[in-house]
Amino acid sequence: MFASGAASAHRGRRPRLRNAVYPLLGSLLLLAASAVAEASEVNAPREYLDQETGATVFFVGRPLVFAREGGINRRVVRAWTDDHGDVTVAPRDYVSLAAAAIDRGGKYTYVLIGYFWLVGTPRPSENTCFDREHLVLQLDDRRIELAPFEGSARDAGVSQPLHRPSIGNAEPAVYTIDLTTLGLVAESAHPVLYCGAEKAPLKYELWEDRLPALRELVRQLRD
Fold it and tell me: Within 13 Å, how many C-alpha atoms sit on residue 125's CB side?
C-alpha cells in the first residue's frame, strides 16, 4: 500500500521537474547563442573606402597584440579606442599588428599595420621596440621576417588609422606580407614576435588570443 502510494507520488512529480528544466535549458541555449554571436561580431572583418587613396581597405576586427614586461610605473591603464571598447593593460611594452588587404582597382596588396606603444615607461629605451623596427614572427619552427615598407601607410593605400592604441601618439609602421603567410600566422598555435638586433632581439609574447579575428579575415579574403 505504501509502496504503491510512494510510486504514484514519484510518478506525479516527474513532469513538474521536466517542465522546470526545459525553460532553464532554453535560457542557457539562448545565452550560448548570444555569446557566439557577440564573439563572431567582434572578430568580423571591417572595410572602408579610403577617400584619400581611392583604395578599398579590408582589415581585421581586432589586431594581434604582443607584450613584453617592462616599465617603471606599475599602474594599470585603460587603453584602446576602436577595438570594441577599452581594455585594462599593465605596465609593459606593446607591439600591435593589424592585418589589412588593400584593393586598388582589383589589384590586392596585403600589409600588417604595426604600432609600438608603452605603458608605464616615459620614453623608449634601448630595451624597447619602437618605430619602424625589423620584426620576426616565430611560428613554431617557421621564421617569418617582416621588413618595414619603404613609405608611409598612406603610400600603401591606408590613410586612416587602423586600431591605433589610445595611449600616446604612436605612428603606424607598415610591413608587406602575402595572403598565404597571413594564413600561416592565423593558424599558428602561439606566434612569438622578436624585434630589433639579430644577435639579441627583444621577445614579445602574444598578450591576448585574437587569432580568431585574423582567421576570419583570411577566410573571407580567400572566398
Answer: 10
